[in-house]
Amino acid sequence: MFTLGMIQENAFLVRRPGASEAVIIDPGDEAPKLLAAFEELGVTLAGILVTHTHFDHIGAVADLHDATGAEVWCPAGEVEILRDPNAVMRWEGFGPFRGYDPEHLVKGGDVVSLAGFDFQVVSTPGHSPDHVTYALPDEGALFSGDVLFQGSVGRTDLPGADHATLMASIGSLLDRFDDATTVYPGHMGPTTLGRERQTNPFVLQILGA
After folding, report:
1. Residue 95 pLDDT more than 90?
2. SS3 of residue 146 by DSSP
3. What are the backbone dihedrals phi and psi of residue 25, each rounded to the nearest 5 degrees, phi first?
4. Nearest CA-CA partner of 125 in 77, 86, 87, 84
C-alpha cells in the first residue's frame, strides 16, 4: 500500500510472492515514488487498474503508462473522465491532471487476468457513477476504492453520486463475500467485511441493526 498525494489516497501494488510481475490499483499521484518502488522491488508492471476516475485515484496513470508501457483498465461508464479529467475535475488547488485513453474498459462481471491473478470486476456505483471494486476471492481481498472504509463509506455529495445506490453496492459486497475478506480501501487503513458489519454505523443501518 502506498499512500499518495495531498488527499492521502491509497494505491495498491499486487503480486504473487516473489513474482516479477505486479499490478497497480488506483495510482493517484507521485509517479516517481511508485516507479522507484517498482525498481526496488524488482517488478515490472503488468497492468494498471482503476476503480473510478476521481482525480486522487488517477493522477499518476498517464505517467506510469509512459514509463512502463503498462496498459490501463477503466470502468466503461467513466472513460470520458479519464480521457479528459480537467473538463470535470475543477478543484481549487489541484491539477491540472493528465488524461489517458485506456486500452481496456471494464464492467461488472468481467474478469481481468494479470500477473497470475484473476481480478473479478464487481459493479459498485454510488460514490461515482460507474465505480467498480476488484475482487480476489481466493486471496480474500477486495480493492474497494472509495466505496467502504474503516467505520465509514464513500462521499455522495459529488457529481454523479447517490447515497442509496452506494448503500446498495455495499450491501451487495456483504452478501457476496465472506466476513473474513480484507477490504483494501482508497483512504485510511485496511479492514475486513466482518469488522465493518459489526462496527460501521452505515453498514449497521443497511443491516437494520
Report:
1. no
2. coil
3. -115, 125
4. 77
